[in-house]
Design brief:
single chain, Nucleotidyltransferase, domain 5, 18 helices, 20% strand
Length: 500
């Protein structure tokens, strides 16, 4: 069948970016990668920044490639959450956006002297994390008020990149919802909270929802790149929201893990859960397509292994991720257990040394080699999945019959099998490029080519390769995972979800 629509999805994760060209022929979405590039932070004078101009250069390169490939009709950008740029009164970016792993939010709990944590959660329903936009702005108000005084607009990362392309400013709902500044019920800014922390209301653009138009490619972009005056759409601009929109399940409340630098484990709800138990379980209520709620919890994800690999590369060890899987498989199981969400793993640095120090601090033998480091990190991540699944069931009143894993983490068959074994649930893994597919799906819905996200999920389930992993309990026994789980809770000082 002839192509009816072409979309260009620009998917920027916290470690890399990619440009994906999707072609829709009326019955299937065919997606091809045009360009892939690194997204590495830059440390300068003690501050960790995003290199946003380099990212924008890569976006322009992607558009040029798409033009040479036959063109496109629509463009959508998604990125990681919480981070932002500030525009001055002349419309120019005041400085490079600061990375969420920067140390400026280390004193984040000082905020609760101004606004108690319970009051914040009752409105925003967002998981307590020092990286949240709320804490970043509080630190600016405390330490750099002169920068805020010069600012006219705050734009989250995808909104900022859209602005660079079109000159128009918006606040897309799913990305704004990560900030801990949005009223979860109203799906709009909580200006009462914003006033209490002393931030000017005028910084915030009006909230728009996925599928809204945010302008056309500017004339300067068209001239520079030979590009058409294509429409730029606000997709589900938070990368997790895009991925969730194409979970290949027809269940009303599927359980998913969006697996990448972070692992986002949760389900989809019609309305937020803002009570005492969700707050104690530290779940988040972020926005989804169709005004849904992504009720989920952030887990550290593959970040620790990414940082281990960077350190080993600095030492001249060029391990691939496949190498690390093989090394991990050769190591003894459950020799040491690591809580992947421990605070020492948040910041970049020598992660293998931190894993060894964590083991020593908790009275466990330190890993003897790199394979043992990889093994305990992978097992720790899978065991944390079980913990969060049980907390999800308790706090949301849902039953996780099976788990859908989407994103880059599905490339590791070892991690997917460990997830099935640890959680004692069947795992369906795929698609890998779920975020870019979700971005394309939102554009197709907005263009009237698909009836809604339900149809997009059906297409993905029918056309994408989905792998299935059976838990070891299906074959008798549990492989030692249950004993390891309870030992991890004891070692890490974690209360069982049943006691939260």
């Amino acid at each position: 069948m002839p192509t009816r629509l072409r979309t260009l999805s620009l998917d920027l994760g916290a470690s890399s970016g990619r440009a994906m060209l999707a072609e829709f022929d009326g019955s299937s979405i065919r997606m091809r990668e045009l360009h892939r590039f690194a997204n590495d932070p830059v440390a300068l004078h003690g501050t960790l920044h995003w290199d946003v101009l380099r990212l924008f250069h890569e976006i322009k390169q992607s558009i040029s490639m798409a033009v040479r490939d036959g063109g496109f009709d629509l463009i959508g950008i998604d990125t990681w959450g919480v981070d932002f740029g500030l525009l001055g009164h002349d419309g120019r970016l005041l400085e490079n956006p600061v990375h969420y792993r920067d140390s400026r939010t280390d004193r984040f709990k000082e905020l609760y002297e101004t606004v108690p944590r319970r009051e914040i959660y009752a409105s925003t329903g967002i998981q307590e994390m020092q990286i949240n936009t709320l804490h970043q702005l509080f630190s600016l108000k405390r330490d750099r008020p002169e920068l805020l005084a010069r600012a006219r607009r705050l734009l989250f990362m995808p909104d900022l990149l859209n602005y660079f392309l079109t000159g128009e400013t918006h606040a897309e709902y799913t990305i704004a919802s990560t900030s801990e500044l949005l009223d979860a019920r109203a799906r709009d800014w909580d200006f009462g909270l914003i006033d209490r922390i002393g931030i000017d209301r005028s910084l915030f653009c009006g909230v728009v929802h996925p599928g809204a138009g945010c302008g056309t490619l500017g004339k300067h972009i068209q001239d520079e790149l030979g590009a058409p005056p294509a429409k730029v759409l606000c997709v589900a601009s938070h990368d997790t929201a895009s991925a969730v929109s194409v979970v290949p399940s027809q269940e009303k409340q599927p359980t998913y893990i969006i697996s990448g630098t972070w692992s986002l484990l949760g389900t989809e709800l019609a309305e937020p859960r803002l009570g005492e138990l969700p707050m104690r379980c530290n779940f988040t209520n972020e926005g989804g397509v169709g005004r849904t709620i992504r009720y989920l919890k952030n887990i550290m994800g593959t970040w620790i292994m990414q940082e281990c690999r960077r350190q080993w590369q600095r030492e001249g060890k060029g391990y691939s991720f496949n190498d690390l899987d093989r090394m991990s498989e050769a190591a003894a199981p459950f020799a040491r257990l690591v809580d992947v969400d421990a605070p020492e793993f948040i910041k970049p640095g020598d992660m293998p040394a931190r894993v060894r120090a964590y083991c020593e601090r908790t009275g466990q033998p330190a890993p003897a080699d790199d394979g043992e480091v990889a093994r305990c990190v992978c097992e720790g991540l899978a065991l944390k999945y079980r913990y969060v699944v049980e907390a999800l069931e308790r706090s949301a009143g849902v039953k996780a019959q099976s788990i859908n894993i989407l994103g880059g983490g599905t490339k590791s068959a070892q991690l997917c099998q460990m997830a099935a074994d640890a959680t004692r649930r069947v795992v369906s893994a795929g698609p890998v490029e779920a975020t870019a597919l979700g971005s394309a799906a939102v554009m197709l819905v907005a263009a009237g080519e698909l009836s809604g996200i339900g149809e997009a999920r059906r297409l993905v389930a029918e056309t994408e390769g989905i792998d299935t992993y059976e838990p070891c309990v299906s074959h008798g026994g549990d492989g030692g995972w249950d004993e390891a789980y309870w030992r991890l809770l004891e070692t890490a000082g974690l209360a069982p979800p049943s006691e939260l």
